[in-house]
Design goal:
globular, 5-stranded antiparallel sheet, Neuraminidase, mainly beta
């Protein structure tokens, strides 16, 4: 099975033996949700000061200059501590930025909505406001024709996926239609076709066959679910985006050639058509891509072959595939800072994101922690790594060069990843709230 289906959308992994697998997501999420909360309580007991330091920290909503990759802070977001990756969406009518985050106070997540003009927090209800603590909602989109946010809801109680409407004010989930037979949802392939009013994604059916699902965005009815063309082991298609004509573009990873290419995906059959080779891209950051309407470009944050972090703007369309521009990104003064959750506002042609500023933390050294960050070595490696200061880790994820989650084992200070040559990205969320990204080369 493709590694991309091992992705989690809620909770965090514990810092002893962890292994991604192809079991239904609820088995992982339900266990990890509890472990994360218990782990936080232990951390609070051992380092009581850290909780008060955590209460002082804050995320920022920022606007990114698309011409040079710099950013300006709009305002801080009080109460937002740990961001759930892949849960952000922009309401293009009201210019509201909505995302899910753990508040660090109640041990629960909230749905934050921020006004992009003023930076004010409009609402932050508990989320998802359902009976199942391990329920989660991913791949939200603002559905312009219906003036509402829709996304894919996984129910812990029913063990099922449902296209649902999200109420940003109350945090409640209102079911639209259950997707019968869907056993796994790949949210790196999810797009909303505003013109055709269709919610599109790939997933595994009850027989673990990969299909391309096309749903009616209003009723949730499955209009089609064609079988995906066969993929070789470790090959994958991910990171869907739609152009202005409703054509699906994506990235195809050919593992036998260790090559990433730009392709077009047929909505009716899932078949892919080669557009261009993206050999300049050595790796991509998961979930960080968008369609820039002003450039008609597929824009994605990644690493070039020289190891430089950039936003790559790729011409879309049948005759596309050329690089329009590559912008150095991000511009950070401190290696402890980060920017995540890139969101493009199609009506104003502006780019926004969430920014963690390490300088906001105060007196962290008074906690007597061994270090504020982890170190991972050796690099390059054959697959076996050592982590310095593993006790700082809240959870960790490993991605390959195409942005798919990779199976790994973490025991004490030893991290093992597959001995398959290539570039890997390790994303660790630390107990002080910071997200740390590392690149590792396996030879």
């Amino acid at each position: 099975m493709d590694g991309e289906f091992g992705q989690l959308s809620g909770g965090g992994e514990c810092n002893f033996i962890v292994r991604f697998c192809i079991f239904p997501k609820v088995l992982l999420v339900n266990t990890n949700y509890t472990k994360m909360r218990i782990g936080f309580l232990i951390f609070l007991f051992v380092f009581p000061m850290s909780f008060f330091q955590l209460k002082a920290q804050s995320e920022f909503i920022v606007e990114i200059d698309k011409s040079n990759g710099s950013h300006i802070k709009i305002d801080s977001i009080p109460g937002a501590k740990f961001i759930e990756i892949g849960t952000s969406v922009i309401n293009t009518d009201s210019s509201y930025f909505t995302f899910e985050a753990w508040d660090g106070f109640s041990l629960r997540n909230r749905l934050f909505t921020v006004d992009l003009n003023s930076g004010n927090v409009i609402s932050n209800p508990y989320y998802p406001n359902t009976s199942g603590l391990s329920d989660n909602v991913h791949s939200p989109f603002y559905y312009e024709a219906a003036s509402k946010i829709i996304g894919m809801h996984f129910s812990q109680t029913l063990l099922s996926y449902t296209l649902a409407e999200i109420n940003r004010t109350t945090g409640t989930i209102m079911p639209i239609n259950s997707i019968i037979g869907l056993s796994r949802f790949d949210y790196t392939t999810c797009v909303l076709d505003q013109q055709s009013r269709e919610y599109i994604f790939s997933g595994l059916d009850s027989n673990y066959q990969k299909r391309l699902y096309v749903l009616d965005a209003d009723s949730g009815f499955v209009k089609s679910s064609s079988l995906y063309p066969a993929l070789d082991t470790f090959d994958s298609v991910s990171n869907f985006q739609l152009d202005s004509n409703g054509l699906i573009h994506a990235l195809f990873w050919d593992n036998s050639q260790s090559n990433l290419s730009f392709v077009q995906i047929s909505k009716s059959s899932g078949a892919r058509t080669f557009i261009s080779n993206l050999s300049i891209l050595r790796g991509i950051y998961p979930y960080e891509n968008y369609y820039d309407t002003s450039l008609n470009s597929y824009s994605i944050w990644g690493i070039d072959t020289s190891g430089n972090s950039r936003i790559f703007n790729i011409q879309m369309g049948t005759n596309g595939g050329n690089f329009i521009s590559t912008i150095p990104f991000p511009h950070l003064n401190d290696s402890n800072d980060n920017i995540i959750e890139l969101q493009y506002h199609s009506k104003t042609n502006r780019l926004y994101a969430l920014h963690w500023d390490h300088d906001i933390l105060t007196n962290l050294n008074e906690l007597n922690l061994p270090s504020e960050k982890i170190s991972i070595y050796p690099n390059p490696t054959m697959g076996d790594l050592v982590i310095k200061n593993p006790q700082l880790i809240d959870f960790i994820r490993v991605f390959d060069a195409k942005g798919s989650l990779v199976e790994f084992e973490l025991e004490d200070d030893h991290l093992s990843i597959p001995p398959i040559p290539g570039l890997y990205f390790i994303r660790a969320r630390l107990k002080n709230g910071r997200i740390q990204n590392e690149k590792v080369l396996v030879r």
